[in-house]
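Q: Could you write out the predicted structure for this multi-component system? I'm mainly interested in how the pieces pack against one another.
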Amino acid sequence: MSRRRRFEASTLFLLSPWIVSLLLFGLYPFGFSFALSFYDYSPLNPQSAKFLGLANYAEALRDPLFWTALKNTLIFVFGTIPFTTLLALGLALALQKRFRGRDFFRAGFFLPTVVSIVVISLVWKGLYAPEGFLSSLVRALGGTPPRWLLEPHTALASIMAMDVWAASGYYMVIFLAGLQAIPEELYESASLEGATPWQKFVHITLPMLRPTFLFVLVVNSVRSLQVFTEVFVMTGGGPLHSTLTSVFYLYEQAFYKFRLGYASSIAYLLFALTLGLAFLQVRWLKLESPRT
Amino acid sequence: MRIRALLTFALLLALAGCGKKAGGKELVVFWQFFPAEQIGPVLDEFRKQNPGVDVQMEQLTWQSGLEKITAATAAGNVPDLCELGSTWFPRFAAQGALVDWTDSTAAMAQQMVLADMARVNGRSYGLPWAVGTRALFWNKALFARAGLDTTRGPENWDELLAAARKVNKLGGGIAGYGANAGERYVLFKKFMPYAWGNGGQLLTDDGKASAFDSPENVQALEFYLALAKAGRVDRQDQLDEAFMQGKLGAQISGAWLFRKIPKQAPDLAYGVALVPHPVGDRGTHASFAGGEILCSFKASKNPSGALKLARFLASRDAALMLARANQSVQPAVRGVESDAYYQQRPMERVLLDQLALAVPTPNHPAWLDMEAAIEDEVEKALYGKESAAQAVKAASARIDALAKNTDLSAK
């Protein structure tokens, strides 16, 4: 018993850097911002913070820009995730088999993941410029290029297209790992039974990838609901608020308008939405406990 | 989430700030936005003149600087001296975060252009340091091809609109005028020069109500929409790019082009003129004025050192030294046009003339919201969602609500 206790003490000690940083930089700010969401709080003048109860939340629900931002965020989430997931799965299937140059392609598709999203956004801002590559391409093909980031009905879609491109590589790697975990015997016995490749895909690959799908969907939803940097760099929420997203809106409230309390309440509304969506995804994929 | 990361950052700053002391010397912590190679020599000069003082300079970026200052203020770990953009300044001043320098800088403030930029309710909370304005940049080669006068730039609205329309007809991807949209904090600076020049106003004199809904402002917006039709609507970096490629007849832009053009388009034949005024002898060549203000926080540890450094930086010689190195700001001190640097550069002198006619934004605590209201509505008009009259009326209603919701006496 004493051996066991000593083991626990040393475990705790070795884990302490992580535990301390979690408490200090994870849980404490998490709780602090939750408390802030009930206050009128300006970082410039913290002494005169006023307790407001639920007024910040009520204001958010009445704020038309909050809803615009939420609508754009949901469009972003539901408009990118299916494409990102399908593209990632397709790439994983294509790059699973051995062929010459496979590693080159794997590395190539994964590359955007290791590049800073700020850099990607700046590059794509250039690609979308009126004199940029994409416009020139459309012109060379004989068309009239859209105004990409400058038109309210194309700006958000342009950012979404970039996000699908930039994010797919990471989920491709997750799918590759999932594919490798499927036992080879399943395919062998299916072949003996005379199953077609399509049947094998539908009845073996897809069901076996279910935990991977869950992981990809939940992680991607959490990430996409917080879309910020692309908007910050490329459009600043415009034109006509067509790319205003929830996190960009709360950032503006917190750091340009100094309304940290109100911004925190928006953050917690978004948190509730994220939690709800993740819950639905777990339920929908009918898993008692996510394995991955 | 991002908020969490920033709160963490604030906490880190608070922890890191415990007990900073320079060895024997008086320490002044100074946060600013100029590149180290431009501000460094100026600070070296200060150190030479004040051997008992050491300056610890930190360079902030425009992307995250405001966040950092905000987080530091929240944590109570502020620098002694800090550079604040003129549009951020009123909020810090209104929250009572800044030191009142009215008495200690009165004599210097008299020598400043736009000294009002650092004043709220008649009190000074900083020293104007480097300032900037916008003027009309026009392409001489395109004006010549369109058969226009190339000896001087357009003087009034009619001349500018006629020139833009003629250049716009040249074809081949050439646009007559460049109007702004698709980003924040820019459109306002491009539209208001015409509104101010036409006698339009933002707020009533007491700052308690909107004065934006006026025939002058509607007229100015109609003019701006006509200009946009005779050209293209784009982000500033794209307009500058098009201008340097010789594909834009005229646009309102800033002194940063003096640094970019010699590098990227050394052969460009262009001119700089004051922002055109309305037709006849009516109105003025008004423009937008912004700038950098040096401030100290009430929570600063060394307020006297901060003031000493601020007085040095804002003085004629030091400000000129920085302006020469940076090439896109002007010193806030009056009378620099006699300096050899400006004597050799007539186009940059136009910007000094423009500065004398430029209007700073009101130091209202809700200013950034008001600016956003104007940009929202003017942008709607640019995209054809509203008429000029509707846009001006809608913006005015929003400004009015903001003005009435703000307690101006709050400290």
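A: Regarding packing and overall arrangement: The beta strands of chain A are 39-40, 50-51.
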